[in-house]
Amino acid sequence: MRTKWAVLYDGNCRICTDGAEKLKKLAGDKVDLRNFQDPKNLEGLPEIPYADLMDKMHVVSPENGKPPRIYKGAAAIARVAALTPVVGPLALLYYVPGLRQLADLGYSQIAKRRYRLSGGECENGTCKLHAHE
Fold this sequence. Notes:
By secondary structure, the chain is an alpha+beta fold. The chain has one domain (5-130). The chain is built from seven helices and four strands. The chain has helices at residues 14-27, 50-55, 73-81, 88-91, 99-112, 114-117, 126-130; strands at residues 5-9, 31-35, 58-60, 70-72. The chain has a four-stranded mixed sheet, covered by helices on one side.
């Protein structure tokens, strides 16, 4: 049984990797970072289509005897940030009407352009492949 929050991020994206590592620093041992580009990192998790994973970061709640919940995009960031004592109360601002829509819009715009924003260069060439998106 999984007891940590699984953070599914695009390991081919510098922005995503940096962001996931920052979430890990905030939440510590409460999260398990998983690069979804390596299929074995998805074992033991609910099935999420690859296209959805490429679209937004996903966070899967621990099982704790219940079916896991899946959070996506800005909601996923807010959910993990809420696990921390310092940033947690600020994460609740995500749920304020209007702010949530702004956060979702900002997240989606960055996510669509993440490869281009990261400079279009990465070790395996994936950034150049997706830079036109």
